[in-house]
């Protein structure tokens, strides 16, 4: 007798946008994909809140600018009503909306997307939206299921805590779950001359937490190179935000500018960021090459170039994010004698990039987010344990 197969529940999606055209497009896109069900389509944040309990979505695509109640106002109310909800903010590509999107991430939104326009193609938006809903929806679905044991799901509930420094430590390993095991390399014995960080989904909040934990004095000792998957305009807002939380100068990197200690350089959205030797000095190189790993900016050019110029004196960190961007660069850094750390699964919003980095066997540590900043401080101070 053949055992009955329990059907896997579809990812339930709520779309909140004041544009009927946008709601219709997203509904159609998701309807063409297996595994999704659009359970509600709302014009305002207020109507979304009213339908939240009955619709029971796993993921909400939430517009920022809406009449009656905007996304920034609705977001914390939604998360209070349904803490396991994954919310993806959607906004037009303006500096104001970039600032608001970062505030939403700090309040607990899982991710954001810039709407199609002059700088964002509709096909790219569609691909990214479907990919984000698929990954975040699966995590949220597991979290909401009885006796859920997906460690990544807890991160969706603790993003806002990370922003203020109030972290939830990873819980005990669920009964029957395999113990994590990674091949780890010793840290380089060379003094750290540069810190390079790659991140994506959940990254802005994780970046802020790490840089704040490192502190002004330790950050002043080395240049800090950052690639976060973000479109143009958003990266300028991110740089300003990181400067405010870290107490160090922070800006989008510009082509040809010198790389100096104590400055945070953020890869500009839509461009790749590398570090190149120019005589005795090091400079930022910004180029408009093709995407790598479907990403632009990609972590790979930054890691590749930094491994060449800093060698065994480079310390790299891979934080939360979808996909495997940066994994090839991790191997190059390791091959050049540098050191790499990755964020662990339990504190990552999505354990794609750091998981891929850990799987290379080239990392020297795989740590919870609250431990990464203090570990960097010790490494900058000469500790190699």
UniProtKB/TrEMBL annotation:
<feature type="active site">
    <location>
        <position position="229"/>
    </location>
</feature>
<feature type="active site">
    <location>
        <position position="325"/>
    </location>
</feature>
<dbReference type="InterPro" id="IPR035909">
    <property type="entry name" value="CheB_C"/>
</dbReference>
<feature type="domain" description="Response regulatory">
    <location>
        <begin position="12"/>
        <end position="130"/>
    </location>
</feature>
<dbReference type="Pfam" id="PF01339">
    <property type="entry name" value="CheB_methylest"/>
</dbReference>
<dbReference type="InterPro" id="IPR001789">
    <property type="entry name" value="Sig_transdc_resp-reg_receiver"/>
</dbReference>
<feature type="domain" description="CheB-type methylesterase">
    <location>
        <begin position="186"/>
        <end position="383"/>
    </location>
</feature>
<protein>
    <recommendedName>
        <fullName>Protein-glutamate methylesterase/protein-glutamine glutaminase</fullName>
        <ecNumber>3.1.1.61</ecNumber>
        <ecNumber>3.5.1.44</ecNumber>
    </recommendedName>
</protein>
<dbReference type="InterPro" id="IPR008248">
    <property type="entry name" value="CheB-like"/>
</dbReference>
<dbReference type="InterPro" id="IPR000673">
    <property type="entry name" value="Sig_transdc_resp-reg_Me-estase"/>
</dbReference>
<keyword id="KW-0378">Hydrolase</keyword>
<feature type="active site">
    <location>
        <position position="200"/>
    </location>
</feature>
<keyword id="KW-0963">Cytoplasm</keyword>
<dbReference type="Pfam" id="PF00072">
    <property type="entry name" value="Response_reg"/>
</dbReference>
<dbReference type="GO" id="GO:0008984">
    <property type="term" value="F:protein-glutamate methylesterase activity"/>
</dbReference>
<comment type="function">
    <text>Involved in chemotaxis. Part of a chemotaxis signal transduction system that modulates chemotaxis in response to various stimuli. Catalyzes the demethylation of specific methylglutamate residues introduced into the chemoreceptors (methyl-accepting chemotaxis proteins or MCP) by CheR. Also mediates the irreversible deamidation of specific glutamine residues to glutamic acid.</text>
</comment>
<keyword id="KW-0597">Phosphoprotein</keyword>
<comment type="similarity">
    <text>Belongs to the CheB family.</text>
</comment>
<keyword id="KW-0145">Chemotaxis</keyword>
<feature type="modified residue" description="4-aspartylphosphate">
    <location>
        <position position="63"/>
    </location>
</feature>
<dbReference type="InterPro" id="IPR011006">
    <property type="entry name" value="CheY-like_superfamily"/>
</dbReference>
């Amino acid at each position: 007798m053949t055992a009955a197969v329990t059907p896997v529940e579809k990812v339930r999606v709520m779309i909140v946008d004041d544009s009927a055209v946008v709601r219709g497009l997203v509904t159609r896109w998701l309807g063409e994909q297996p595994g999704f069900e659009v359970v509600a389509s709302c014009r305002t944040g207020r109507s979304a809140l009213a339908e939240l309990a009955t619709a029971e979505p796993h993921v909400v695509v939430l517009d920022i600018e809406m009449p009656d109640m905007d996304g920034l106002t609705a977001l914390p109310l939604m998360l209070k009503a349904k803490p396991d909800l994954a919310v993806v903010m959607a906004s037009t590509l303006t500096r104001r909306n970039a600032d608001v999107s970062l505030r939403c991430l700090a309040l607990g939104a899982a991710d954001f997307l810039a709407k199609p326009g002059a700088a964002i193609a509709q096909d790219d938006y569609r691909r990214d939206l479907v990919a984000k809903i698929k990954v975040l929806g699966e995590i949220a679905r597991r979290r909401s299921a009885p006796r859920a044991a997906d460690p990544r799901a807890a991160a969706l509930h603790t993003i806002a805590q990370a922003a203020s420094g109030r972290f939830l430590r990873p819980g005990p390993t669920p009964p029957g779950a395999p113990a994590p095991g990674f091949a780890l390399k010793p840290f380089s014995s060379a003094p750290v001359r540069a810190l390079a960080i790659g991140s994506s989904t959940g990254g802005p909040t994780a970046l802020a937490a790490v840089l704040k934990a490192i502190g002004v004095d330790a950050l002043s000792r080395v240049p800090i190179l950052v690639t976060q998957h973000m479109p143009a305009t958003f990266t300028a807002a991110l740089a300003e935000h990181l400067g405010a939380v870290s107490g160090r100068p922070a800006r989008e990197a510009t082509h040809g500018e010198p790389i100096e200690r104590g400055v945070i350089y953020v890869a500009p959205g839509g461009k790749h960021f590398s570090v190149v030797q120019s005589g005795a000095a090091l400079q930022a190189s910004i180029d408009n090459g093709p995407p790598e790993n479907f990403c632009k900016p990609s972590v790979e050019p930054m890691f590749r170039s930094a491994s060449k110029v800093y060698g065994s004196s480079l310390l790299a960190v891979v934080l939360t994010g979808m996909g495997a961007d940066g994994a090839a660069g991790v191997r190059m850094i390791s091959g050049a004698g540098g050191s790499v750390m990755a964020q662990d699964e339990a504190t990552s919003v999505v354990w794609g990039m750091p998981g891929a980095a850990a799987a290379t066997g080239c990392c020297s540590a795989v740590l919870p987010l609250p431990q990464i900043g203090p570990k960097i401080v010790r490494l900058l101070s000469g500790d190699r344990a």
